[in-house]
Amino acid sequence: MTVPVAWDENLANELINERSGLEGAMLPILHALQEKFGYVDSRAVAIVANTLNVSRAEVFGTISFYHDFKRQPPLGRTIKLCRAEACQARGAEELAAHLEKSEGVQIDGGYHNGVRVETAFCLGNCALGPNALFDGELFGKLDPQSLRELFAAASRKAGARQ
Amino acid sequence: MSLIQEIDFGTPIRIAERTVTLTIDGEQVSVPEGTSVMAAAMSRGVKIPKLCASDNLEPFGSCRLCLVEIEGRRGTPASCTTPAENGMVVHTQNERLAKLRRGVMELYISDHPLDCLTCSANGNCELQDAAGEVGLREVRYGYKGENHLDDVKDESNPYFSYDPSKCIVCSRCVRACEEVQGTFALTIEGRGFDSRVKPGPTNFIESECVSCGACVQACPTATLIEKSVIERGQPEHSLVTTCAYCGVGCSFKAEMRGDELVRMVPYKAGQANEGHSCVKGRFAYGYATHKDRMLKPMIRARITDPWREVSWEEAISHTASELKRLQAQYGRDSIGAITSSRCTNEEVFVLQKLVRAAFGNNNVDTCARVCHSPTGYGLKMTLGTSAGTQDFASVDYADVMLVIGANPTDGHPVFGSRMKKRLRAGAKLIVADPRSIDLVRTPHVQADFHLQLKPGTNVALVNSLAHVIVTEGLVNEAFVRERCDLDEFETWARFIALAQNSPEEMEQYTGVPAKDVRAAARLYASVKNAAIYYGLGVTEHSQGSTTVMALANLAMATGNIGHVGAGVNPLRGQNNVQGSCDMGSFPHELPGYRHVSDDATRETFQALWGVEIDDEPGLRIPNMIDEAVAGNYKGLFVQGEDIAQSDPNTQHITSGLLAMECVIVQDLFLNETAKYAHVFLPGCSFLEKDGTFTNAERRINRVRKVMAPLCGKDEWRVFIELAHAMGYEMDYSHPSEIMDEIAALTPTFAGVSYAKLDEMGSVQWPCNEAAPYGTPLMHVDRFVGGKGHFMLTEYVPTRERSGPRFPLILTTGRILSQYNVGAQTRRTENGFWHKEDVLEIHPFDAEQRGIVDGDLVSVVSRSGDTALRAKISDRMQPGVVYTTFHHPGSGANVVTTDNSDWATNCPEYKVTAVEARRVNSLSTWQERNAEEDVSLRRVLEATPDAAE
Prior knowledge:
The structure holds 2 protein chains of 2 kinds. By secondary structure, chain A is α+β, with helices and mostly antiparallel strands. Chain A has 2 domains: 9-65, no CATH class; 77-161, Glutaredoxin, CATH 3.40.30. In chain A, 49% of the residues lie in helices and 11% in strands. Chain A has helices at 9-19, 26-37, 42-52, 56-65, 85-89, 92-103, 144-161, and strands at residues 77-82, 115-120, 132-134, 137-139. Chain A has a 4-stranded mixed beta sheet with strand order 2-1-3-4. In chain A, a hairpin with a 2-residue loop joins strand 3 (132-134) and strand 4. The two termini of chain A are 16 Å apart. The two termini of chain B are 34 Å apart. In chain B, a hairpin with a 3-residue loop joins strand 23 (589-590) and strand 24 (594-595). Chain B has 31 helices and 36 strands. In chain B, helix 8 packs across helix 25 (715-725), helix 9 (345-359) packs across helix 26 and helix 13 (458-471) crosses helix 17 (514-526). Chain B is an alpha/beta fold. At the A-B interface, helix 3 and helix 4 of A face strand 6, strand 18 and strand 19 of B.
């Protein structure tokens, strides 16, 4: 994963224009913005709206619909922990409770030691759950130990960035 | 009298050739194919409980209240999203469904405030009704769970309030904004339980919302509700009437409490608007009871004297004696009148009758002189009738729209929404306009071609379009051969095929790339249904009439006349421009566009009116002013119009008014013209009138009196009494009798009566023996006059050109929230959106002159100068500046010149050579005008009322 860069309107325009010809361009554009800046800046709304000739409300509505699109710059790193049915069946809930207790992090809460843990609903790796996603890499068959290690690694990376 | 309740079928009743028959609750029902089970049930009066469905919106299926059982199908499908099919057997009520619906309702109510008794929607709430229909008796979930009851209200819009704590997230508002209005200003923020209606990332007033009111109308609860209802309570009776703003002529229900207007609600059965509205008609009616209304007749000897309030009797006898004195002293032709396109057909008819019969001359003109007189002339010369060819619904079938010199989303918003709907469905769009109007690019609509011509070059552009059609073999020869005068066509075709008319040659004038013109012409000629829509950007030019004829030529050459989806359609500015022209307001024409020199016509009128009618045309408005300046024209009756603000070259107009001895103004307000008047007669707002307006599609709509005239007298009675005082008798007891006289005298109106209007809702003229139910579509099998006439339309550049002294071209127009001279809209909350007229200027021109946004800028032409705030805008093209004349102090018309259309004298508002530069103070005219606003408007404080 690339390190997010600060908001840059020219860069945003470039990312948006490159994708504006795609069919259903809104989501690829929003993903590209989030990938580059770590979030979708509110200033992007009008630009996307104008480029795609849709209303600002529609862009705003789309961003708000997906929890995955962040509206604020990231303050650290994010681990996505799957808590969908298959992972639940393989102990994801217990794992989540364990992590909250051992690391003091609140799932879907704020950043703790530079890391935010977010609920995801299915990462497509059900046979090998419980799963988590960090930095684009999928971690399967998690247990308390390996999840703690993942958290620690994420925390180090977050610290390294600062 | 009670409140008019319109049936809501829940989903649209489809238009289809085939019908399907199904059984609903044991009864057979037949509906057009594609109609939903819900609408089918309602068509038999069976109301299935619903919250998210409304018949002006596509079915959505989110509220889960309209579940039904269909025999042979599993589960309980939503009746709104299930199309009716042959042989279906539907049950809308049974124990299982009742239980399901109650369960759904319990969930809604568990997150809804229980303040029905104090809620502003109490008595008119679909949620309340639905709870009653499903028999809700308890909410097992309680009220203490997670909820939205503390959500904060958004009261930023001046007309309506948004209270999310009452919102059930049915998305009707969001869908209405998208499907009906086409603005897409609303969305649902978040998902699941967090879902909230939101005007984008901001509040309502900062959002893309245009305050059309469609969301408010769609809301089934008190979430989106008019502030007037919150303040005054629910209305108790209503009457259907017609909006008094633009030429769309929307039908509204005026909803009343006693004699107080609570709100205006667009009427679904209104054939012009089909239940939609804009910010003006829906909300901007507060002027009707504004404190500035003048309610007593007033007179004064000199305009520098203060006004003196007098009785109606004194006002009328004084006026009559003054007018008689002037005629005795200066001759019969020294007086005349201007009729108003804002007044009813009946009022206009009686006023022109007053002029022709009691004044004994033809000095009657109308404010259409300065807007659509070229339409009257141009369409009569080519198509044979001074009117547009289609109804509004025709646009639903257009494959290509050519919009030229019109800005429908601002000027005719309700029709603009209808156009956008058709464009979203795939119709192609050609916009010819010097500015980038909204239609060029607005969410989900993009013009295929924007021909951004230089102001004043319409004829050059339309000729070059026609050149491509003729020279590239795109003429519809069968149509031309059968329907048009062939000799005239051939002469025209030879003319238009000349190289001088080619896009390549015309490009030097229009500035439009020839290849775009060629492509646009091919597009226009390539489809079955191509429709032309135009406005004042076509007519208000030195060649206004020529452009109208050029457009008619274009339509005839491609066979785009006489069928749905096509045609030549003038978008009329004011509510009754069409009607005031129809009613004989022109100095050369008696009602029905018949020339005063025609003996047979005159004899018809003479027989009924018992007077001789002058066979010479009278004076047009500009001639009246010129003659006044020359000392030959001394008395003028001005009905509901403000020529001192709206007509070009203000200082020429006011010098004409100053030279007259008796100027009579009949208006709601002491307007700019009234500053120069000697008699003021208070008028009635449209809410105080019975009568008819005729809209842009020739539709005669009823105006109904919802309150008594505040000034104590119907306007039409004033003319009767004035005629009597001048020695001519006419007598009517109700406007319906005036319409009967119009029908008796005018062949195109022969079948019109109030009884028919009440029965049909409205009727489009011609309405007579040949077309007893009116004529939605004109020239179907033959042109009204027999053959269509091609007219030669040589491009002659206007004399008004930019040069070293005046390097910019000023063009003028309108914006959405204001209307014409602003007399009405400035006296409403609409001022919020447009507090002053500004000068829009392209960044390049601004930079050259060191002008930054918000600077005070002097605009100078050879007529005069005025100072406005600059607004830098890339909607302009370099070299062109733009302003509006909604505010009297702006003096936009101090700058415009008295150039005019060669055929009709319609002023060339759209082209004035100007220079703009930064200044520190207002212009001399503006300063003097501000002083005169006080000095020429003084009223003697005769009664405590007047002092208020």
